[in-house]
Amino acid sequence: MNNIYEPLMLKLTDQIGAHKKFLVGFSGGLDSTVLLHLLARLRQQTSQSCSDKQNAFTLRAIHIHHGLNAKADEWVAHCRQICADWQVDFCVEKVSLDSRKKGIEAAARDARYQAFKHELRQGEILLTAQHLDDQAETFLLALKRGSGPAGLSSMPVVMSFAETTLIRPLLNISRVELERYAQEHRLRWVEDDSNQDDRYDRNFLRLNIMPLLNQRWSHFSQAVSRSAGLCGEQEQLLDELLEESLNTLITSEGSIAILPLEIFSEAKRNALLRRWLSRYGVKMPSREQLQRIWSEVALSRQDAEPRFRLGQLDIRRYRQQLWLVPQFQSLAGVVMSWDTEKELQLPDGLGTLFLSDSKEGMEKSVGIRTPNNHEQVTIRFGIQENISIVGRQHSRHSKKLWQEFGIAPWLRERIPLLYYDDKLIAALSVFVTKEGQCLADDRQLSILWHKILSDS
Q1: What is the phi/psi pair of residue 161, to 5°?
Q2: Rounded to an integer, what distance in angstroms lies between the CA atom of residue 176 and that of residue 172?
Q3: CA-CA distance, 131 to 173, in Å (whole number)?
Protein backbone atom coordinates (compact mmCIF):
# COMPACT_ATOMS: atom_id res chain seq x y z
CA MET A 1 0.00 0.00 0.00
CA ASN A 2 1.59 3.32 -1.10
CA ASN A 3 1.91 6.53 0.92
CA ILE A 4 -1.05 8.22 -0.84
CA TYR A 5 -3.49 5.33 -0.58
CA GLU A 6 -2.80 4.73 3.12
CA PRO A 7 -4.06 8.02 4.68
CA LEU A 8 -7.11 8.29 2.42
CA MET A 9 -8.13 4.72 3.17
CA LEU A 10 -7.69 5.29 6.89
CA LYS A 11 -9.86 8.42 6.74
CA LEU A 12 -12.51 6.56 4.77
CA THR A 13 -12.69 3.59 7.12
CA ASP A 14 -12.83 5.94 10.10
CA GLN A 15 -15.82 7.81 8.63
CA ILE A 16 -17.92 4.83 7.51
CA GLY A 17 -17.38 2.87 10.72
CA ALA A 18 -19.02 -0.54 10.88
CA HIS A 19 -21.43 0.04 7.95
CA LYS A 20 -21.22 -2.57 5.21
CA LYS A 21 -23.97 -1.74 2.67
CA PHE A 22 -23.44 1.35 0.53
CA LEU A 23 -25.12 3.32 -2.24
CA VAL A 24 -22.67 5.82 -3.76
CA GLY A 25 -23.67 8.94 -5.66
CA PHE A 26 -21.44 8.54 -8.75
CA SER A 27 -21.28 11.45 -11.19
CA GLY A 28 -18.13 10.19 -12.87
CA GLY A 29 -16.19 13.27 -11.76
CA LEU A 30 -12.92 13.23 -9.86
CA ASP A 31 -14.41 13.22 -6.36
CA SER A 32 -16.93 10.40 -6.75
CA THR A 33 -14.46 8.36 -8.84
CA VAL A 34 -11.90 8.44 -6.02
CA LEU A 35 -14.59 7.57 -3.47
CA LEU A 36 -15.86 4.62 -5.49
CA HIS A 37 -12.33 3.36 -6.12
CA LEU A 38 -11.50 3.51 -2.41
CA LEU A 39 -14.67 1.59 -1.58
CA ALA A 40 -13.99 -1.02 -4.23
CA ARG A 41 -10.53 -1.55 -2.75
CA LEU A 42 -11.98 -1.70 0.76
CA ARG A 43 -14.57 -4.24 -0.38
CA GLN A 44 -11.78 -6.40 -1.79
CA GLN A 45 -9.90 -6.29 1.49
CA THR A 46 -13.03 -7.00 3.53
CA SER A 47 -14.13 -9.94 1.38
CA GLN A 48 -10.76 -11.62 1.92
CA SER A 49 -11.19 -11.51 5.69
CA CYS A 50 -14.97 -12.00 6.03
CA SER A 51 -16.74 -15.36 5.66
CA ASP A 52 -20.15 -14.14 6.88
CA LYS A 53 -22.24 -13.69 3.73
CA GLN A 54 -25.11 -12.03 5.60
CA ASN A 55 -22.81 -9.23 6.73
CA ALA A 56 -20.84 -9.03 3.50
CA PHE A 57 -19.69 -5.70 2.08
CA THR A 58 -22.11 -4.60 -0.68
CA LEU A 59 -21.49 -1.67 -2.99
CA ARG A 60 -23.79 -0.02 -5.53
CA ALA A 61 -23.44 3.18 -7.54
CA ILE A 62 -26.17 5.51 -8.78
CA HIS A 63 -25.67 8.05 -11.56
CA ILE A 64 -28.13 10.96 -11.89
CA HIS A 65 -28.88 11.96 -15.49
CA HIS A 66 -29.99 15.60 -15.27
CA GLY A 67 -30.34 16.05 -19.02
CA LEU A 68 -28.61 19.44 -18.84
CA ASN A 69 -25.45 18.72 -20.80
CA ALA A 70 -24.99 17.46 -24.36
CA LYS A 71 -22.45 14.95 -23.02
CA ALA A 72 -24.82 13.49 -20.42
CA ASP A 73 -25.24 10.19 -22.31
CA GLU A 74 -21.47 9.88 -22.70
CA TRP A 75 -21.07 10.31 -18.94
CA VAL A 76 -23.58 7.52 -18.34
CA ALA A 77 -21.61 5.21 -20.64
CA HIS A 78 -18.35 6.15 -18.89
CA CYS A 79 -19.78 5.48 -15.42
CA ARG A 80 -21.33 2.20 -16.51
CA GLN A 81 -17.97 1.02 -17.88
CA ILE A 82 -16.09 2.06 -14.72
CA CYS A 83 -18.57 0.13 -12.59
CA ALA A 84 -18.29 -2.90 -14.86
CA ASP A 85 -14.50 -2.80 -14.58
CA TRP A 86 -14.66 -2.55 -10.79
CA GLN A 87 -17.57 -5.02 -10.44
CA VAL A 88 -19.91 -2.48 -8.86
CA ASP A 89 -23.68 -2.69 -9.38
CA PHE A 90 -24.74 0.36 -11.37
CA CYS A 91 -28.03 2.17 -11.95
CA VAL A 92 -29.07 5.39 -13.70
CA GLU A 93 -31.88 7.72 -12.65
CA LYS A 94 -33.14 10.33 -15.11
CA VAL A 95 -34.60 13.41 -13.44
CA SER A 96 -36.52 16.44 -14.63
CA LEU A 97 -35.81 19.85 -13.14
CA ASP A 98 -38.08 22.71 -12.21
CA SER A 99 -35.82 25.72 -11.78
CA ARG A 100 -38.56 28.36 -11.64
CA LYS A 101 -38.59 28.66 -7.85
CA LYS A 102 -35.05 27.90 -6.70
CA GLY A 103 -32.75 28.21 -9.70
CA ILE A 104 -31.01 25.48 -11.65
CA GLU A 105 -28.36 24.60 -9.04
CA ALA A 106 -30.83 24.10 -6.20
CA ALA A 107 -33.29 22.30 -8.48
CA ALA A 108 -30.57 19.87 -9.62
CA ARG A 109 -29.54 19.20 -6.03
CA ASP A 110 -33.12 18.56 -4.93
CA ALA A 111 -33.66 16.19 -7.85
CA ARG A 112 -30.48 14.26 -7.03
CA TYR A 113 -31.42 13.68 -3.42
CA GLN A 114 -34.95 12.68 -4.33
CA ALA A 115 -33.48 10.08 -6.68
CA PHE A 116 -31.10 8.86 -3.97
CA LYS A 117 -34.01 8.55 -1.56
CA HIS A 118 -36.00 6.56 -4.11
CA GLU A 119 -33.15 4.15 -4.89
CA LEU A 120 -31.90 3.39 -1.37
CA ARG A 121 -32.56 -0.16 -0.22
CA GLN A 122 -33.19 -1.36 3.30
CA GLY A 123 -30.01 -1.40 5.35
CA GLU A 124 -28.01 0.75 2.92
CA ILE A 125 -26.41 4.07 3.74
CA LEU A 126 -25.80 6.81 1.20
CA LEU A 127 -22.28 8.04 0.48
CA THR A 128 -21.58 11.26 -1.43
CA ALA A 129 -18.21 12.69 -2.40
CA GLN A 130 -18.16 16.32 -1.29
CA HIS A 131 -14.67 17.33 -0.17
CA LEU A 132 -12.92 20.03 1.86
CA ASP A 133 -13.02 22.67 -0.89
CA ASP A 134 -16.75 22.03 -1.41
CA GLN A 135 -17.25 22.66 2.30
CA ALA A 136 -15.43 26.00 2.11
CA GLU A 137 -17.54 27.04 -0.88
CA THR A 138 -20.75 26.05 0.92
CA PHE A 139 -19.70 28.14 3.94
CA LEU A 140 -19.03 31.20 1.78
CA LEU A 141 -22.34 30.80 -0.04
CA ALA A 142 -24.11 30.68 3.33
CA LEU A 143 -22.18 33.79 4.39
CA LYS A 144 -23.31 35.54 1.20
CA ARG A 145 -26.95 34.70 2.06
CA GLY A 146 -26.56 36.16 5.56
CA SER A 147 -27.06 32.78 7.24
CA GLY A 148 -26.74 32.23 10.96
CA PRO A 149 -24.87 29.40 12.73
CA ALA A 150 -27.18 26.71 11.29
CA GLY A 151 -26.42 27.73 7.72
CA LEU A 152 -22.75 28.40 8.40
CA SER A 153 -22.33 24.91 9.84
CA SER A 154 -22.54 23.89 6.15
CA MET A 155 -22.44 20.15 5.42
CA PRO A 156 -22.12 17.64 8.27
CA VAL A 157 -20.00 14.55 7.73
CA VAL A 158 -22.85 12.37 9.03
CA MET A 159 -26.56 13.14 8.98
CA SER A 160 -29.91 11.37 8.96
CA PHE A 161 -31.40 10.90 5.51
CA ALA A 162 -34.46 9.01 4.23
CA GLU A 163 -34.74 6.82 7.34
CA THR A 164 -31.07 5.88 7.04
CA THR A 165 -27.72 7.73 7.13
CA LEU A 166 -25.87 9.98 4.72
CA ILE A 167 -22.09 10.08 5.11
CA ARG A 168 -19.65 12.40 3.32
CA PRO A 169 -16.40 10.55 4.02
CA LEU A 170 -14.18 12.89 1.95
CA LEU A 171 -15.32 16.11 3.59
CA ASN A 172 -12.00 16.68 5.35
CA ILE A 173 -9.90 15.83 2.28
CA SER A 174 -8.81 18.52 -0.19
CA ARG A 175 -9.22 18.33 -3.94
CA VAL A 176 -5.43 18.39 -4.27
CA GLU A 177 -5.21 15.16 -2.25
CA LEU A 178 -7.91 13.58 -4.39
CA GLU A 179 -6.07 14.55 -7.58
CA ARG A 180 -2.83 13.04 -6.28
CA TYR A 181 -4.64 9.81 -5.42
CA ALA A 182 -6.34 9.65 -8.84
CA GLN A 183 -3.09 10.24 -10.68
CA GLU A 184 -1.26 7.66 -8.59
CA HIS A 185 -3.91 5.04 -9.45
CA ARG A 186 -4.34 6.21 -13.06
CA LEU A 187 -8.05 6.77 -12.63
CA ARG A 188 -10.19 8.18 -15.43
CA TRP A 189 -12.92 10.70 -14.75
CA VAL A 190 -15.18 13.09 -16.63
CA GLU A 191 -14.98 16.88 -16.56
CA ASP A 192 -18.26 18.78 -16.61
CA ASP A 193 -17.67 21.83 -18.84
CA SER A 194 -20.51 23.66 -17.07
CA ASN A 195 -18.19 23.86 -14.06
CA GLN A 196 -16.31 26.56 -16.01
CA ASP A 197 -19.39 28.79 -16.22
CA ASP A 198 -18.96 31.38 -13.48
CA ARG A 199 -22.51 32.68 -13.86
CA TYR A 200 -23.32 30.06 -11.22
CA ASP A 201 -22.45 31.22 -7.71
CA ARG A 202 -20.52 28.12 -6.69
CA ASN A 203 -18.48 28.14 -9.90
CA PHE A 204 -17.75 31.85 -9.40
CA LEU A 205 -16.29 31.09 -5.99
CA ARG A 206 -14.42 28.02 -7.22
CA LEU A 207 -12.89 29.72 -10.27
CA ASN A 208 -12.32 33.29 -9.13
CA ILE A 209 -12.33 33.57 -5.34
CA MET A 210 -11.01 30.34 -3.81
CA PRO A 211 -7.71 30.36 -5.78
CA LEU A 212 -6.94 33.86 -4.47
CA LEU A 213 -7.83 32.94 -0.90
CA ASN A 214 -5.80 29.74 -1.01
CA GLN A 215 -2.88 31.57 -2.60
CA ARG A 216 -2.89 34.12 0.19
CA TRP A 217 -3.69 31.65 3.00
CA SER A 218 -2.71 28.09 2.16
CA HIS A 219 -4.85 26.58 4.93
CA PHE A 220 -7.92 28.71 4.27
CA SER A 221 -10.22 25.75 3.46
CA GLN A 222 -9.17 23.90 6.60
CA ALA A 223 -9.83 27.02 8.70
CA VAL A 224 -13.26 27.48 7.14
CA SER A 225 -14.05 23.83 7.79
CA ARG A 226 -13.15 24.32 11.46
CA SER A 227 -15.42 27.36 11.64
CA ALA A 228 -18.24 25.39 10.06
CA GLY A 229 -17.67 22.62 12.59
CA LEU A 230 -17.77 25.10 15.50
CA CYS A 231 -21.03 26.58 14.17
CA GLY A 232 -22.41 23.05 13.98
CA GLU A 233 -21.38 22.39 17.59
CA GLN A 234 -23.09 25.59 18.73
CA GLU A 235 -26.29 24.58 16.95
CA GLN A 236 -26.14 21.11 18.51
CA LEU A 237 -25.66 22.67 21.94
CA LEU A 238 -28.65 24.97 21.39
CA ASP A 239 -30.71 21.98 20.27
CA GLU A 240 -29.92 20.20 23.53
CA LEU A 241 -30.54 23.26 25.72
CA LEU A 242 -33.86 24.12 24.04
CA GLU A 243 -35.19 20.58 23.64
CA GLU A 244 -37.12 20.51 26.91
CA SER A 245 -38.68 23.95 26.36
CA LEU A 246 -39.64 23.05 22.81
CA ASN A 247 -41.33 19.83 23.89
CA THR A 248 -43.52 21.71 26.36
CA LEU A 249 -44.54 24.25 23.69
CA ILE A 250 -45.43 21.86 20.86
CA THR A 251 -48.86 20.27 21.09
CA SER A 252 -49.76 16.70 20.16
CA GLU A 253 -51.15 18.08 16.88
CA GLY A 254 -47.85 19.74 15.99
CA SER A 255 -48.81 23.37 16.65
CA ILE A 256 -46.79 25.60 18.97
CA ALA A 257 -48.23 27.65 21.88
CA ILE A 258 -47.97 31.43 21.52
CA LEU A 259 -48.47 32.71 25.10
CA PRO A 260 -45.36 31.04 26.64
CA LEU A 261 -43.24 32.40 23.78
CA GLU A 262 -44.20 35.97 24.71
CA ILE A 263 -42.16 35.89 27.92
CA PHE A 264 -38.93 34.89 26.16
CA SER A 265 -36.36 37.21 24.63
CA GLU A 266 -36.58 37.70 20.87
CA ALA A 267 -33.40 35.63 20.42
CA LYS A 268 -34.75 32.66 22.39
CA ARG A 269 -38.18 32.91 20.76
CA ASN A 270 -36.66 32.93 17.27
CA ALA A 271 -34.46 29.96 18.15
CA LEU A 272 -37.50 28.00 19.35
CA LEU A 273 -39.55 28.93 16.28
CA ARG A 274 -36.73 27.84 13.97
CA ARG A 275 -36.50 24.48 15.71
CA TRP A 276 -40.27 24.03 15.57
CA LEU A 277 -40.16 24.61 11.81
CA SER A 278 -37.11 22.37 11.43
CA ARG A 279 -38.93 19.44 13.07
CA TYR A 280 -41.37 19.46 10.17
CA GLY A 281 -38.77 19.86 7.43
CA VAL A 282 -39.57 23.50 6.69
CA LYS A 283 -36.89 25.58 5.02
CA MET A 284 -35.47 28.04 7.52
CA PRO A 285 -36.97 31.53 7.32
CA SER A 286 -34.86 34.67 7.42
CA ARG A 287 -34.78 36.88 10.51
CA GLU A 288 -37.13 39.31 8.77
CA GLN A 289 -39.57 36.50 7.99
CA LEU A 290 -39.50 35.33 11.63
CA GLN A 291 -40.23 38.86 12.79
CA ARG A 292 -43.20 39.05 10.42
CA ILE A 293 -44.51 35.64 11.52
CA TRP A 294 -44.47 36.86 15.10
CA SER A 295 -45.88 40.36 14.56
CA GLU A 296 -48.33 39.65 11.70
CA VAL A 297 -49.58 36.22 12.75
CA ALA A 298 -48.92 35.50 16.43
CA LEU A 299 -49.66 39.04 17.64
CA SER A 300 -52.40 40.04 15.21
CA ARG A 301 -55.75 41.15 16.65
CA GLN A 302 -57.85 38.43 18.23
CA ASP A 303 -60.67 38.49 15.68
CA ALA A 304 -58.30 38.21 12.70
CA GLU A 305 -57.48 35.06 10.73
CA PRO A 306 -53.86 35.83 9.79
CA ARG A 307 -51.58 33.76 7.63
CA PHE A 308 -47.97 33.92 6.46
CA ARG A 309 -46.85 32.02 3.38
CA LEU A 310 -43.57 30.12 3.82
CA GLY A 311 -42.62 27.98 0.83
CA GLN A 312 -45.41 25.50 0.19
CA LEU A 313 -46.97 26.02 3.63
CA ASP A 314 -48.97 28.67 5.45
CA ILE A 315 -48.37 29.60 9.08
CA ARG A 316 -51.75 30.26 10.71
CA ARG A 317 -52.94 31.18 14.18
CA TYR A 318 -55.77 29.37 15.93
CA ARG A 319 -56.63 29.11 19.63
CA GLN A 320 -53.42 30.92 20.62
CA GLN A 321 -51.24 28.48 18.72
CA LEU A 322 -49.24 28.70 15.50
CA TRP A 323 -50.01 26.01 12.94
CA LEU A 324 -48.26 24.78 9.78
CA VAL A 325 -50.94 24.33 7.15
CA PRO A 326 -50.77 23.13 3.51
CA GLN A 327 -51.81 25.66 0.87
CA PHE A 328 -55.19 24.18 0.00
CA GLN A 329 -57.10 24.71 -3.20
CA SER A 330 -60.05 27.08 -2.72
CA LEU A 331 -63.34 25.15 -2.81
CA ALA A 332 -65.68 28.09 -2.24
CA GLY A 333 -68.54 27.90 -4.71
CA VAL A 334 -67.91 24.29 -5.73
CA VAL A 335 -71.19 22.40 -6.27
CA MET A 336 -71.18 18.64 -6.98
CA SER A 337 -74.28 16.68 -7.94
CA TRP A 338 -74.39 13.31 -6.19
CA ASP A 339 -76.17 10.13 -7.17
CA THR A 340 -76.12 8.55 -3.72
CA GLU A 341 -76.20 5.07 -5.25
CA LYS A 342 -72.58 5.70 -6.26
CA GLU A 343 -69.42 6.86 -4.52
CA LEU A 344 -68.55 10.55 -4.83
CA GLN A 345 -64.89 11.51 -5.19
CA LEU A 346 -64.33 14.81 -3.42
CA PRO A 347 -61.93 17.43 -4.80
CA ASP A 348 -58.38 18.30 -3.64
CA GLY A 349 -57.66 14.99 -1.92
CA LEU A 350 -60.55 15.22 0.54
CA GLY A 351 -61.53 11.59 0.05
CA THR A 352 -64.76 9.78 -0.83
CA LEU A 353 -68.42 9.88 0.22
CA PHE A 354 -70.67 6.83 0.00
CA LEU A 355 -73.60 5.10 1.64
CA SER A 356 -72.77 2.04 3.72
CA ASP A 357 -73.85 0.09 6.77
CA SER A 358 -70.21 -0.55 7.70
CA LYS A 359 -68.31 1.94 9.81
CA GLU A 360 -65.00 0.13 10.02
CA GLY A 361 -62.03 2.32 9.18
CA MET A 362 -64.26 5.29 8.29
CA GLU A 363 -65.10 8.68 9.77
CA LYS A 364 -68.01 8.69 12.18
CA SER A 365 -71.41 8.13 10.61
CA VAL A 366 -73.84 11.05 10.17
CA GLY A 367 -77.49 9.99 10.44
CA ILE A 368 -79.85 12.18 8.37
CA ARG A 369 -83.22 11.84 6.68
CA THR A 370 -83.37 10.40 3.18
CA PRO A 371 -84.14 12.87 0.37
CA ASN A 372 -87.61 13.01 -1.11
CA ASN A 373 -87.97 11.73 -4.67
CA HIS A 374 -87.99 15.24 -6.11
CA GLU A 375 -85.04 16.59 -4.07
CA GLN A 376 -81.69 16.94 -5.81
CA VAL A 377 -78.66 15.94 -3.69
CA THR A 378 -75.52 18.09 -3.96
CA ILE A 379 -72.28 18.58 -2.05
CA ARG A 380 -71.05 22.13 -1.59
CA PHE A 381 -68.27 23.89 0.28
CA GLY A 382 -68.13 27.09 2.29
CA ILE A 383 -71.05 28.74 4.05
CA GLN A 384 -71.71 32.16 5.57
CA GLU A 385 -75.22 32.30 7.04
CA ASN A 386 -77.35 31.57 10.09
CA ILE A 387 -78.01 27.86 10.65
CA SER A 388 -80.45 25.93 12.86
CA ILE A 389 -78.96 22.62 13.91
CA VAL A 390 -80.30 19.64 15.80
CA GLY A 391 -79.96 20.13 19.56
CA ARG A 392 -80.03 23.95 19.47
CA GLN A 393 -83.11 26.04 20.20
CA HIS A 394 -81.93 29.09 18.26
CA SER A 395 -80.03 29.50 15.03
CA ARG A 396 -76.40 30.60 15.07
CA HIS A 397 -74.13 32.07 12.44
CA SER A 398 -71.94 29.51 10.69
CA LYS A 399 -68.74 31.16 11.98
CA LYS A 400 -69.94 30.74 15.57
CA LEU A 401 -70.84 27.11 14.92
CA TRP A 402 -67.44 26.32 13.44
CA GLN A 403 -65.83 27.90 16.50
CA GLU A 404 -68.11 25.96 18.83
CA PHE A 405 -67.19 22.64 17.17
CA GLY A 406 -63.48 23.48 17.12
CA ILE A 407 -63.09 23.58 13.35
CA ALA A 408 -60.00 25.61 12.41
CA PRO A 409 -60.60 28.44 9.90
CA TRP A 410 -58.60 26.74 7.13
CA LEU A 411 -60.70 23.57 7.44
CA ARG A 412 -64.13 25.19 7.39
CA GLU A 413 -64.22 25.46 3.62
CA ARG A 414 -63.16 21.81 3.37
CA ILE A 415 -66.07 20.27 5.26
CA PRO A 416 -68.49 18.70 2.71
CA LEU A 417 -71.91 20.32 3.05
CA LEU A 418 -74.89 18.13 2.09
CA TYR A 419 -77.78 19.92 0.39
CA TYR A 420 -81.21 18.76 -0.74
CA ASP A 421 -82.11 21.27 -3.42
CA ASP A 422 -81.05 24.56 -1.77
CA LYS A 423 -81.57 23.40 1.82
CA LEU A 424 -78.51 22.69 3.97
CA ILE A 425 -78.96 19.23 5.49
CA ALA A 426 -75.63 18.51 7.20
CA ALA A 427 -72.00 19.44 7.56
CA LEU A 428 -70.56 15.96 7.39
CA SER A 429 -68.91 14.73 10.60
CA VAL A 430 -69.85 18.02 12.34
CA PHE A 431 -73.61 18.69 12.59
CA VAL A 432 -77.06 17.97 11.13
CA THR A 433 -79.51 20.81 10.52
CA LYS A 434 -83.13 20.76 11.60
CA GLU A 435 -84.10 20.47 7.90
CA GLY A 436 -82.05 17.27 7.75
CA GLN A 437 -83.17 15.81 11.06
CA CYS A 438 -84.22 12.15 10.92
CA LEU A 439 -87.66 11.91 12.57
CA ALA A 440 -89.12 8.79 14.18
CA ASP A 441 -90.89 7.56 11.05
CA ASP A 442 -88.10 8.51 8.63
CA ARG A 443 -85.62 6.11 7.12
CA GLN A 444 -82.11 7.11 8.19
CA LEU A 445 -79.45 7.78 5.57
CA SER A 446 -75.95 6.81 6.71
CA ILE A 447 -73.27 8.79 4.87
CA LEU A 448 -69.67 7.80 5.39
CA TRP A 449 -66.78 10.12 4.65
CA HIS A 450 -63.57 8.23 3.99
CA LYS A 451 -60.77 10.76 4.22
CA ILE A 452 -57.66 10.08 2.14
CA LEU A 453 -55.39 12.95 3.07
CA SER A 454 -54.91 14.69 6.40
CA ASP A 455 -55.90 18.36 6.43
CA SER A 456 -53.91 19.46 9.45
Answers
A1: -160, 125
A2: 12
A3: 6
Indicate the burial class of 134 (C-beta count within 10 angstroms; 0-12, 13-18, 19 or more). Answer: buried
Rounded distance between C-alpha atoms, residue 331 and residue 318, angstroms: 21
Alpha carbon distances (Å) from 285 to 66, 113, 233: 29, 22, 21
> What is the spatial distance between Cα 317 and Cα 305, in angstroms, rounded to a whole number?
7
**Contact indicator for 369, 445 with CB cutoff of 8 Å:** yes
Measured distance between the N- and C-terminal CA atoms of the chain, rounded to whole angstroms:
58
> 321-326 and 256-257 as β-strands: parallel, antiparallel, unpaired?
antiparallel
- CA distances 197 to 29, 193, 202, 313, 385, Å, are 16, 8, 10, 34, 61
Q: Which of 77, 72, 61, 74 minimizes the C-alpha distance to 94?
A: 72
> What percent of the residues of the chain are helix, what percent strand, and what percent coil, each to the nearest 5?
40, 20, 40
Distances (CA, A) of 255 to 131, 310, 322, 350, 451: 39, 15, 5, 22, 21
Q: Whole-model pTM?
A: 0.74
C-alpha radius of gyration, the chain, whole number: 29
Question: How far is residue 249's CA from residue 272's CA, in Å, rounded to a whole number?
Answer: 9
> Environment class of residue 136 by beta-carbon count within 10 Å: exposed (0-12), middle (13-18) or buried (19+)?
buried
pLDDT in tens, the chain (456 residues): 445 557 888 888 888 888 899 999 999 999 999 999 999 999 988 876 655 666 688 999 999 998 778 888 999 999 999 999 999 999 999 988 776 666 777 788 888 999 999 999 999 999 999 999 999 999 999 999 888 888 888 888 998 898 899 999 999 999 999 999 999 999 999 988 888 888 888 899 999 999 999 999 999 999 999 999 999 999 999 999 999 999 999 999 999 999 999 999 999 999 999 999 988 888 888 889 999 999 999 999 888 889 899 888 999 999 999 999 988 888 988 999 999 888 999 998 888 998 865 444 334 445 688 888 889 999 999 888 888 888 787 888 988 888 888 899 899 999 999 999 999 999 988 899 988 887 766 677 788 888 765 454
Nearest-angstrom CA–CA distance, 174 and 220: 11
DSSP H or E stretch at residue 447: strand 444-450
What 3-state DSSP class applies to 210?
Answer: helix
